[in-house]
Amino acid sequence: MQLKFRLGLLFIFSFFILLGQSKKYKIHTIAFYNFENLYDTVDDEFTNDDEWTPNGAQHWTIEKYQQKLKNLARVISEIGTPENSNAPTLIGGAEIENRAVLEDLIKEPKLQPLDLGIIHFDSPDKRGIDVALLYQKKYFRPTSFSNIPLIIYKKEISKKEEQSEVLDDEIEAKKENKNRVFTRDQLLVSGFLENEEIHIIVNHWPSRSGGEKATTMFREAAGKLNRKIIDSLQQINPQAKVLTMGDFNDGPFNKSIKEGLGAKGTKAEVVEFGVFNPFEELANKGLGTIAYRDSWNIFDQIIMTASLVKSDFSTFNFWKAGIFNRPYLIQNSGAYKGYPLRNTLNEAGFSDHLPVYIYLIKEFK
Prior knowledge:
Blueprint: H1 2-12, E1 14-18, E2 21-38, H2 62-78, E3 90-96, H3 99-106, E4 116-120, E5 130-136, E6 140-148, H4 159-163, H5 168-179, E7 186-193, E8 196-204, H6 212-236, E9 242-247, H7 255-261, E10 263-264, E11 275-276, H8 279-284, E12 290-292, E13 295-297, E14 300-305, E15 317-323, E16 356-363
Parallel strand pairs: 2-3, 8-9, 10-11
Antiparallel strand pairs: 1-2, 2-16, 3-5, 4-5, 6-7, 7-8, 9-14, 11-14, 12-13, 15-16
């Protein structure tokens, strides 16, 4: 009885006091979570996953893997509470080894009642980690999905090589083999949230490994690709509702977000065809999703087009954003006390990132 209550009651008839008036609203939670090294225990000869095996550096056993799945399932099932008792309708994920680990995840007892669907593609990332979208089949119906590669290079081919008599395809092959940075694709999913079309882009932008300044050009390229995807959707439908979510490996104020994607931090700044980042306000409050050297930043964000930022709730529109932070997600002792509780050699934790979420609401008439 309690389970049925959690899955349905407040989802269908959620009451909020909004703008000083008591009204009835439907609500959907949209979430993103970096699962941090969600690997199985099987060695994949085509990726660098050796450390995530029983004999590898992480001593990754089946027991740890199963505990990791339970931990993630608990978090996913609780994101968005207490405002919405139903688990997220859409969950973007990152650091996922393959589809098989997602199949195992959605079979966990806390998630199985949700009847989650999976959209996943293998990416060219050398570590073998991908992004994916999980969705409640009852509320979301995908109509199309594709993985869009981010083509970036460590350096350009020299002028001498360009001026040589080497054929163009040979030059391209040389770029591909020696200079390309193999990173995660950007996942684009289109579909219907109930009866309203919505588009979701799931991201895991290039890391800061090698230094923030040395790698910023890669994330700036990722931001420009994201903007290009959004532009293409808006050309088809100027009122297209687009959510781009992910671990951007940059915060709300970095160039990749502010210029590449063009995100604004307040609703008043957002112009037609523009995009709004509600997590800029949370960053201004000192909140974070990831900690490094006792400093917090918000790398995990959900950003949306102007078409979702309206005061008219006759259709699904943005209500508010949050960072899901519970005491059980935080280390309570040791050198990393206060940091997200991640995997260690001794136990399977949750993640080194905290999940983020937004609410989309619609007035129920």
